[in-house]
Design goal:
Elements lengths: L2 H12 L5 H14 L2 H4 L12 H20 L5
Length: 76
């Protein structure tokens, strides 16, 4: 994985939509999910193999967490 390329692509895609501080959090989280620890035993992170149901559940769970944090005023 090329972390610099991932950061550049993520910044290019989101820099107009999110605050710079939030963008750095997003970039870091993206890199962590693609790290070795995120690759082993976490096929739901990448919708690998037969993990589409778990991948969707993972995304929905994180949307719920995000919504809760935003409603509490905790954006980061």
């Amino acid at each position: 994985m090329n972390a610099g390329l991932h950061r550049a692509m993520t910044r290019a895609a989101l820099q107009e939509q999110v605050h710079p501080d939030a963008l750095e959090v997003i970039c870091t989280a993206n890199i962590q999910q693609d790290s070795l620890g995120g690759m082993i035993g976490h096929d739901e992170y990448h919708f690998d193999a037969n993990a589409f149901t778990r991948g969707n559940a993972y995304v929905e769970h994180n949307r719920s967490l995000l919504r809760t944090h935003l409603e509490q005023g905790d954006a980061l």
